[in-house]
Amino acid sequence: MTSITKNPPLVDRFGRQVTYVRLSVTDRCDFRCVYCMSEDMTFLPRDQVLSLEEIARVAGIFQNLGVSKIRLTGGEPLVRKGIVSLVEQIGTLGLNDFAMTSNASQLPAKAQALKTAGLKRLNISLDSLKPERFRQITRTGQLSQVIAGIDAAIAAGFLEPGHGIKLNAVILRGQNDDEVLDLVTFARDRGLDISFIEEMPLGEIGHHDRASSFCSSDEVRQLIHGRYPLTATTASSGGPARYWQMADSSTRVGFISPHSHNFCGDCNRVRVTVEGQLLLCLGNEDAVDLRGLLRAHPGDDQPIRQAIIEAMDLKPEQHHFSSNGEVQILRFMNMTGG
Ligand code: SAM
Ligand code: SF4
């Protein structure tokens, strides 16, 4: 058995230390983005979902094992009832970084409470600035509400020092690739960072052919460079994005490129699904069930700590995505916790 006194405890077979955990707080969402979900989704029954107390407990165990950054994600974290009190609990752990990924639809009502509860960073998905098209991509989303959410986050102080707002855009050829520059301009105008994400083959979506809609980060970067010259930086937000800087703006432009620039070599992350499955890699099916242990040992964290430490040996060297659009991972992104 691995000793729990190993220091630092969460190091995998390739010498990578896990310092960052993404916790999915729900598989549900008020949107049905075409690259993330199918139109008809079946969501998990309640008893399979970790309670807020269980999620807070998992966060505390990871923090105790040397994790310094936690991101809450989903599904849409803001549709989970009690989310602000969960943020409040995790906010007391004294993490270096505490973030949430959201579609922003509920930020007009919740941004201020989240900031007060201790959330430091928001990643907000925004794939189009055209209301009709935004509706097509998200199937149910309303652009004006999302922009109001972004502005509410700014007003709540998420651009203060030590905080941050980053937009995330998944670019699909023939769907929104003509909006790359407009999205960068939008981010510049508001002083936000922005990352462009290559679509990943998670789940059978049935909406578009992933191979023909694939748009590489290099292509997107060259397009931006023609209008806003970009210089590479060594900046890191502790995640998979590589960042570029513009001469005349504080906005950083990031690229998350699972296909074209494999980011596995310095991976510092693991994920916990809302069912309590510890996923060692976004692009592999290996998982360890924490829910069973949490429920079997309500007053004793040691078995869960031990399982997490031992799981480090399962972390694969790299993901197994290919750019031909084939689904190798049957989980949808909303199940995985993006
Ligand atoms: N609902 C929140 C949101 O949309 O920001 C958080 C969860 S969502 C699954 C997290 C991120 O994953 C979003 O930025 C979304 O664009 C991205 N995403 C979803 N499916 C994806 C896919 N197949 N490939 C690449 N990114 C994807
Ligand atoms: Fe919902 Fe986010 Fe998935 Fe869109 S990307 S369907 S907003 S979970």
What is the strand and helix layout of this fold?
Blueprint: E1 20-24, H1 52-64, E2 69-73, H2 83-91, E3 97-102, H3 107-116, E4 121-125, H4 131-138, H5 143-155, E5 164-170, H6 180-190, E6 193-197, H7 210-213, H8 217-227, E7 230-232, E8 242-246, E9 252-256, E10 269-272, E11 277-279, E12 287-289, H9 291-296, H10 302-311, H11 333-336
Parallel strand pairs: 1-2, 1-10, 2-3, 3-4, 4-5, 5-6, 6-9
Antiparallel strand pairs: 7-8, 8-9, 10-11, 11-12
Helix pairs in contact: 1-2, 3-5
This protein binds S-adenosylmethionine (SAM) and iron/sulfur cluster (SF4).
Iron/sulfur cluster is lined by residues 29, 31-33, 36-37, 74-76, 103, 125, 333-334.
What does it look like?
With 338 residues, the chain is an alpha/beta fold. The chain has one domain: TIM Barrel. 29% of the residues lie in helices and 17% in strands. The chain is built from 11 helices and 12 strands. A 12-stranded mixed β-sheet has the order 7-8-9-6-5-4-3-2-1-10-11-12. The radius of gyration is 19 Å and the shape is globular. The structure holds S-adenosylmethionine and iron/sulfur cluster.
